[in-house]
## 1
Amino acid sequence: MSRAQRFWGRSKHAIGGLCGISHGASGVALALLELGRYVNHHYWSEVAEQAIAYERFRFDADRLTWRDLRKSVATDESYRDQKAAYERGDVSFFVDSFESDSWCNGAGGIGLTRLRAFEELGVSSYREEATVALKRTRGVLADPQRSPTLCHGGGGLAELLLESWRVLGDVSDLELAQSYSLETSRERYLRGGYKSGARSDDDDQEDANLFTGNAGIGYMYLRVLDPVHTPSILAFRIPRRSCSAVAFIAPAMPALPGIVLSRLFPRTLWVVRHVGAKVLSARLEDWRSLPPDSLPHAFDTFIQELAPGLPGADRDRLCDLWALEHAKACLDNEIVSFSLLHMKSLVLGERVPDLLSHLLDVQLLLDPMVVLHETQWDWVTVDDDHWHHILESEPQTQHVILCPRWQHVMEESLSAFAHAVLLAFRHPCRVEDAVAVIAAEMALDNAAEQAILKDAIVAQVIEAVSAGLLSGVGG
């Protein structure tokens, strides 16, 4: 999966970027589709389609639904379960998703975005995906265990049926929504109240809230009674205005590929604009028709074609920087679960005091996902003036560490000393032995200097253990 497919927000309580209309990519796509229609500008619909492409990547063809990627640590029990899974090396626990057909995180809401995308853009694949969502929704609507509320209940699913009638003209879906609302009213009479969407099954107390309670159920009745004149709050629609009224929202936007690449490879793009701007501008226009997941490969090919024709110094700088940003992007794409990285940081953090209590006797290992990278210029410093200086400076070996975190891929400069210490633990090594080897390589004759050096090595090890870069073997 390429990060050129857009999702919004990295959460430690999720496997990856969430799908769905309430918390995930579908909701952003719907908002962007509406913004594009409001200002009559294609840029926003292009970004919306990238969000849809991301959810297409997360579609489970075996279950015929979109994956619910939430993996929360909301209770002590869920924390214990995740910790136990991490300690036994059960990666599957952190990548296995579950099914959700609700408006908020499942097919019910995703289908609404696909119907809107089909309505606005006329792309047949969006109608096909909406059809899949509708089939799931029709099959689960009558589940007696489901509350009739909006967020994750039947009220939210009924909205998809009403939109199917409006967009596709499917009268049977309108009739099904009407039938469901009547059944909801009957169930309320039999239960003596509506089932809440926020309370346990054995709690009969009603809920007054809009998304999880009676207010939303009442709204569902209004929509079913008059779906033409009652506006949808679950798939909002804003009227189109004249472009002159909102011109500030739709300036002459640069080609979307340039916006995407500036997020994926900002420094490489900056250098290319300084050494090959004319060629780049033409390519950015050509890439507008590419599917979003093809853009990084297209940019890589472009760099390989551009570099050989540049003057020697410009070529070396571009290749040096591209190797760094490409390595960082590859490491980011190797992340299989944000929640796994979060639990890893928690567990390793809990182990630090015990490791430090007998540090010299412990065998440590450098995190296998850590990349120790070498560049010839300092690209880590994020400053335009510094980068301008680099274009005039001579090469000098720099050490960089790349480490995946749930928030991002950490990128930091390393001193040659810190680099040497970390290298000593590429394979399992007892700390006292590593200290001796590193000290011997430094070849200091003075005993006092050797003692100071060994203390510095131990301090560097402590820092690396505390940062989760080094961990005990078997841990």
## 2
Amino acid sequence: MNYQALVRGLGLATLVVMAAGCQKLGSISVDPKTTRFEAAGKTVQLKATQTGNDNQPMKKPLPVTWTSDKADVASVDANGMVTARHTGTATITAAAGEQKGTASVEIHIPAKIVAEDLTLVGVGQSVPFVPGVVDEAGQPMPQFAKNIDAKIENPAIASLVATPDKPEQKMVTAGAPGETKITATFNNIKQDFKVTVKLPDFTELKVDSATLDLKPEGDAKITATPMAGDKPVIGVPVTYTSSDSTIVTVDATGGVKAVAPGKATIEAKAGDKTSTVAVTVKKK
């Protein structure tokens, strides 16, 4: 074709119009290129931009077909709207003519709360409870750990308190022998974790004296110590009872008080072991 003749005969403006009419699709780009979801059902609108072979936007864009290589992970409709379905990675393709453009979608859907069951040995012992969230593929999602709510079923067996400096963990403290559970929740996910409180092993419950003489209205202190051989064992609660509270009373710490003349027995108990103290309250 003799372009010089065209320029002379039709004018430069006409030539430009003819050249524009020859524009062909050179490439397709998809925006955004990457998207991350952390919940099922979330959506993002993708946009396909068509560029001509002259590096200019297409004046007459071609129809675009949208597809996903993993529709069970992320689906896409005819208009480029992507919906998160399950944990995984999917490639979304926009095709027009012979050109294609792609975008990547990464999905992590919280699926489970994970933590260790706890065993505490000894009343008063404290251990951390550190729950976490994992996705459907079992991958940790640490960004959600601080948002897990936790409650203990029986606070008499073990207490559960938050740690302000470490919001992702709670502290569990043994209160009494037995079993209870912690229920952890995050969004619509709920998981139970077992808490067991055991007493340390000990061989005997030793009292500081087997007998005690009191004056009227007198008082004294009885101490019962769990022992393993010749070593005291901590973390074992001891209870005290009086065989006759009209003669002598005893409080939770072993404090004894005379009430009236006579004889009575104070029993100390820890676990399955007991020891006794014979108390005599003398007459005035």
## 3
Amino acid sequence: MNNLNTLINGFDALSGAAFGGGGGGGGGGGGAVYRGGSYVRNTPNTIKNKATLSAQKSGLPGATNGKQDAYRHCVATGEASRQYGETVAILGGMYHEITNPNPPSVRAMDLNNNAAVAHIGSKSNSFNEVEKGCMTAVSSGRLQTRP
């Protein structure tokens, strides 16, 4: 139930608006960090910002519809999956694509990439592991980099 509440409260944050609630507490799970007697998760906005910064530092070309863009989507989805679970990460990505319209080919590319990499986060124990998994996904050609 905590993941469902986080999903509902975090959708607007995933689309760039202010975070509406959710976050830490509860029974942990999915990569949450244990601090001071409770589990602490990043807000979706924080995850988005961390993914953007990681992509900018990656050295990959193509910040828009290129390798860097695919990597950024991977890191955001992977980290959301690590902290909240694959279903929440995929649905949050879908909501973001619906509420931030792109041409259909770009939306399809982003949705496919998000779905293709959610497992990276669910198998990772740290943000660094998510980044490494995403770099491998981009380098191996597993992610679509052009609409």
